[in-house]
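question for whoever is on the cluster today: can someone run the full assembly for these? five chains, 1872 residues total. i dont have access anymore since they changed the login thing
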Amino acid sequence: MDLIVGLIPLAPLSGFLLIALLNKQLRRWLVALMACSSVLFSFVLSIVLFFSLGEDQQAITYTAFEWIAAGNFSVSFSFLVDPLSIVMMLIITGVGFLIHVYSAGYMHGDEGFNRFFAYLNLFIFFMLVLVMGANYLLMFVGWEGVGLCSYLLIGFWFKNTEYNNAAKKAFIMNRIGDLGLILGVIMIFIHFGSLSYQEVFAQAPGWASGSQPITIITVLLFIGAIGKSAQIPLYTWLPDAMAGPTPVSALIHAATMVTAGIYMIARNNILYTLAPFTLDLVVIIGLATAVLGATIAVAQNDIKKVLAYSTVSQLGLMFVALGLGAYASGIFHMTTHAFFKALLFLGAGSVIHGMSGEQDIRNMGGLRKYLPITFATFLIGTLAISGLPPFAGFFSKDEILAGAFAQNKIVWGLAFFASLLTAFYMFRLFFLTFSGTSRAKAEVSHHIHESPGSMTTPLIALAALSVIGGSVGIPAVLGGNHALNDFLTPVFSQSRELLPAHHLSHTAELVLMTVVVALTLGVIFIAYSLYVQRKKVPASEGVSLNSLHRVLYHKYYVDEIYDRIILKPMIFLSKALDAVIERLLIDRVVNGAGKAVTWGGKTLRLVQTGNTGFYIFAMVISIIVLLVVKSFT
Amino acid sequence: MNSVFILSGLGIFSLLAEIFNIKRWLFPVVILGLILSAVLMALDWNQATAYYSNMLTFDNYAVAFSVTLSLVAVLWFLMSKDYFENTTNITDHFSLILFALVGAIFMVSYSNLAMLFLGIEVLSISLYVLAGSNFQNVFSNEASFKYFLMGSFATGFLLFGIALIYGATASFDLQIIASKVAEGTTTTTQWLYAGILMLIIGLAFKISAVPFHFWAPDVYEGSPTVVTAFMSTIVKIAAFAGFYRLFSTCFSAVSNQWVDVIQVITILTLLVSNITAVYQHSVKRILAYSSVAHAGYLLISLVGLNDISSSAILYYVIAYAVASITAFTVLHNVEVEDENAAVDSFNGLAKRNPYLAFCMGVALLSLAGIPPLAGFFAKYYIFTVAFQSGYIGLVLLAVLTSLIGIYYYFRIIIAMYLKSTEKGEIIQVPLRHTVILAISVLASIIVGVFPDLLVGLI
Amino acid sequence: MNDSVSQAVQGVPLDYYIWLSTALFVIGVLGVLYRRNAIVIFMCIELMLNAVNLLMVAFSGYHGDGAGQVFVFFIMAVAAAEVAVGLAILITIYHNTRSTDINVLNKLKW
Amino acid sequence: YAFYFLSFLAVLNALMVVFSRNPVYSVLYLVITFFCVGGHYLLLSAEFLFAVHIIVYAGAIMVLFLYVIMLLNLNEDTEPHKKTLYKFAAIISGGLLMLVLVAALKGAESPELVFGANAEVGLVKNLGKMLFNEFLLPFEIVSVLLLAAMVGAVMLGKNPLKETVAAKKSKGKSGLISKM
Amino acid sequence: MLTLLLIFWPLLATLVFFALRPHEVKKWALAASVIELVISLVIVILFDPSASAQFVVNYTWIQSLGIDFHIGIDGITLLLVLLTTVLTPLIILSSFKNQYENAPSFYGLVLFMEMAMIGVFCALDGFLFYIFWEMALIPIYFICLRWGGVNRGPVTLKFFIYTLAGSLIMLVGLIYLYFQTPGDHSFDIQALYAAGQNLSSDKQGIVFWALFVAFAVKMPVFPFHTWQPDTYHTAPSPGTMLLSGIMLKMGIYGVIRWLIPVVPEGVERWGTTALTLSVIGIVYASLLAIIQKDLKRLIAYSSIAHVGLIAAGIFTMNKMGLQGAMIQMVSHGIVIVGLFYIIDIIISRTATQEIASLGGIRTSAPLFNGVFMIILLGSVALPLTSGFVGEFLLINAVFQYNFVSGAFAGLTMIFGAVYMLRSFQLTMLGDNNAATKSFIDLDRQEKWVLYPIVIMVVLIGIFPAPLLKISDAAVDNLLNIVSNYQAGVGD
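^ ran it for u. tokens below:
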């Protein structure tokens, strides 16, 4: 068992090492094979673990070796496999595997092929370390590692300065979050005297709810989550992150990276449960992000940007769930989201691939006849994310909304609004892309082609998952048994005891569902009438937009604002320090001493007039002075 | 003791040498004689014998210093041979130098003020002449003139002081003076104190301590380089040793009367010399100021007078002498091709003659007091003396000034190793000089690494 | 005869001799400061030495001790020697710079 | 009251030495001063010193001075003059020095000068004894000193032929002194 | 005995130079340094991690002044000795590709310096420590002076006087302590500890500053740092590596061995001030690093920032901080040598160190890029690289010491990423230009330098435990001295 646990992260790592070290020697197909198989391997192992875990809910911990030890501080390389991490592992390796396969086709012909797969494997490895780590520091390892990989992958096409900036932005913003996280971790060590989950969680219930240290810790950890899972105010890197090749976006947005924040909070649910303040904070941030993301997405014309902002808002929803203490629902939505968001991105990738690099939906349209498979799968994805039954998104999102409704109507209202917007912009995207007539440029249009099998198969697989994925969490109302919920029980049991249970009557829940579905359909119809019947096309660049639209189109000018209030001042401060303190103050003082001495030399040497008479005079004078001093003291 | 006669004899011999025209034997004979006399002196070790009704006392202090003097003199002769060969009357020079050396030895071994006075005079008069020994050169004339004028002026004060001391104690014998001073059985204290003050003035002039240092830079610059070397080594050693001998034996009992005066002089010396040296062009002048500065460091040990200060002085003096002999030898070689060498004439020495550059570097580092060279431990030892007597402020000042010192010593080093020069040709060094440099450089390293060779000797 | 002579100074306070020689000494110094002619300056220095001699002799008389007088003898010898050398130097200089003005000699400075 | 008379003369002439414009006069005044000092020696019953004093100073040194002055024929109009400011400062500082020295030397008690039994220390016999017993070494050193001076003088005098005479003369003098 | 060999072997090795022809010298120098490395490894094998000072050699040196030639090795020393002996061969090897005129003196100075630095780490006698301390300064000064870049005269002189000023003040402090020792005084480290600890708290404060200034200048800690960027900028690359990789550690070592145990009360009193200075230094230097236009200067400032963190960690006076400092010293040494070598390669290839005029090197030199990337990650303290272990422990310690300082110290994570990535992007990424078009990838001899560094960066990141073990006992020992003292003061 331990062996398996050890092997799971090891497989992608070895894949990475092999590819990285033998980079030049390897043929492409071999690289692709190694990369995919290594991930597949760990996927299989994860499944094995899953079932071995299935019968007895015992968590497995496997300690490789002691890592850092200094004084009373000691951390070891040890992995923890419990329901939560197994779920994560399954998603990561599963979806990750599909994305690998897809990339094999997508990246075909890029000179960085081998490099790309090396990075992908490394990415998977770090993500696995993140979710499998049995202590905070190991989680931090993965946490930073994925940051690094995102940097490498977003800046994959390193000749383009735009992309490099995007990559740097991603890394630094993550770093800001990471600082919060590491400080939180240190706080945990200070207050719990250990960094391993077991010991911390064992002690946790001892603390009174809302006690200050816990609050500080959770807030600090949450800052980490904000950075990693692209919440306000650190979300801006995520939309830029689509600078990387599309599979990377899929990986980052769906399977790995952004889910880390969700995982981390779910992992620390007990701490958060003990910190109501932080929970509220999470809800607020989550809601704000959800609405903000959704609104921005409405006005975007880049197919990947739209999806990116949808991710932002979806993540917001998940945080709302977590904040409301519905950890399971958060994980549930994350799971389904992983499926359909991966699907959507890969679909988008396929479209771009077919359109030979075109990303602007204003230049698309009528692609359904060129790319049938992509069309079908994309449709499924869109339905899923819009939350229509019986697709996966429906169940997870509904669960969140229900939970919200039960606790706080305003939260529910806003969340619901966000999800309606989601439906709208997704279908806007869908219609503009696939329906109607082609607006593609001539040179593009005549060789639009469906993607190769290596790309479509993952699409189909993901589409299937997006359809049936919801089945793991069919609520009791609809005669299901919330499998995932039960499975995760051991992880959340502590919190469950502390949290007040909110229960909606089944009728209420049913009513809610119908309302949601109905309104969603309505929204979809609006989109349909706008973009199919009236063949409306978003205004092209340069055309002046009405103010609201412009604000949305420019994403509330957030990047610009950051530039003004953070970047520019920092540079200014640096320059000021350099000019004032470094040069004027310190250097002045230091060199001033030297100058003073030289000046003294210049002047004192003039005393040496060379005139003997003067010398003797000086001597006599000083003799007199000496005598005076002596005889009158 | 007999060594004194040997040296005087050598002096006369070298005069006769001209007559009997055996000049070519002169040099080896002188060298051998010097070494012989050094050996003979060394035999007096631990005897502390008084000679000629207690005119001279060769206690360990005297022996140590006179041996040092003779050995330095050997090095000096080796260094300056060629200079004299160019002059018309080599024999006169030799005899004068030897007489001066005799005077110097009296100055370190006297136990009667008469001997101190005569020693100083023999030394000075020879030097007045030697400073001017380059007749045609106006600078040389001026140097000797200034030296003479101010020297004899200072002698006046010295004598006045001696007279007052005599008036106070009715004797010239150090022991008697010391005992009377200690018992306070002097005729009147006023005469004593005034006398001490006058002595301080006269001797401070001889060791060129500020504010009686004005002659030093000019004379050093004007005199022929070898003579300057003689002044800044032997004369300085003898003068300070004499100074210290007098005050440590006779007047230590009333040190509270004069110590603050010395302290003031010390502080002035340290500051003025070091700062003034910073902005000099002629290397000779820089070395002159540095020798003034070193007088200041030596004075520290007189301020914080205690049981280890004499050995500190011995160590310091040796370290200093070795280093400056090296420096002057190099300077001498550099001057071969341009007169009155400025700092710039050292440019690119590292390329033109790495050996010279290296030796100069070691010498300067030692003068600047950088470990592990002798100069460092010398300074350190002096500092300990001051510390032990609780003059921490003085130590801090000395540290500060030695930092300033770094600045001007390193100007030369930078010139040698960094600056480039159009004069490409290699400087030829006579074998004799190579040997001296080797000896003295090794000396400053060895003495620096194993200070125990000298520490606690006296 | 010396008895009769010595009678003459019987009772003269020693201080007076000190004042006298101090006065002479200071006049010597004053001369050194005051004049520019090197030769005269030498003379003034000789004056200083004489002042010292006088003081010595006075003290030796006071202490009834010969040492002082012997010392004076040495001083005289030294003085003679100094003068000899000094004048020789002076002449050399005069030979190079037709002057005995001490202020002419200020080539060496700074 | 020879003392006061001699003292007065000495100081007066000393001042004249300083202030007389013509170097030759200065020399002559100096000679007088020396005689006064010599007189004091007699008063202090140091006959031997008196003799030596007269011979060396009046006899040798002064002649030497005169000779050189003649040689370089210095006189009033060749005499360089300092700026009056300098002179003033010189006088001031000289006065100050005097004051300070007096202040430093003024003994609380002023012992009377009394000659006891050892009045004849100053006689040649006694001094000779001292000179050749306890002060033998210094005496010898003096000869070394004079030798050095001689050599030096010769060296300096030798090369410009014009001054040879002066050098020789100085040599002669020092030789004379060293004999006695 | 082994210690003697360890210290004086490099010096002996230089003697051979006179026998060699100039072009052979470099090889021999390399061989000598490798032998030195072997010696140190032997010591590591024989070393007993649980005990304190070992391999002690103690001769009386200057009888009358109580100065002994007293050397020994404990964990702290060993770690730094190891760092020195590992880095020196690499540095020497790195210097192979540019021909230094007058090679014998160049390599002679380098080895001499190695000797002096090892001596500093091994010395157990205050005076000996000072001697070695100064002796380390001479060779580096001459290296910079003779083989340095533009305007080196004044810059190196400033550096020399600046550091010497510090160390002379230290000397005064040491002499002061020496005179506090009982009986006929002694410079032995234990005696000095005792002497320092018996001082009144005010006096300890004074001594603290006297010593701290010297170390602060060496490290350098804000605001004593202004000599450093200029010097790094003008010094020849090997000189810069020696300075930043090893010599800088002398200052930190000084604080650990010669400051904290000597005047615990003084540290008690002024530690917070020093810590604050260090933390200010972190932020300040990082901010300045962001706007640097010159690669060497940028790294120089980054080094100030890192060292600031180390110093801050030490002044927390808890084990985590000290151990973190130890490991971070090693890591920093390795990483910064790597970085400077990379810059050296860039300069030698493109003849410029202006960040602005570079770019796109990655396209033509993937290997170089990879190596740079990994070393850079080590510098920004990414987990699983050597930098992280130390940085985490240090931030942890500082954070425990004081919440705010900890938060500020943590900023180094962000700023580090900012300026390092900026420089990386501007030099390696983007399109290549005239300067970088024909950039040749690493050659064999460069690989020999860089691969070991990369391997060490990663290995130490994953298995820091062995290194931590080495210094563990020594650090405990140190802290015991302090705690015993405080206990003594308590009652």
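summary bc i know u wont read the tokens: The first helix of chain E runs from residue 2 to 17. The radius of gyration of chain E is 22 Å.
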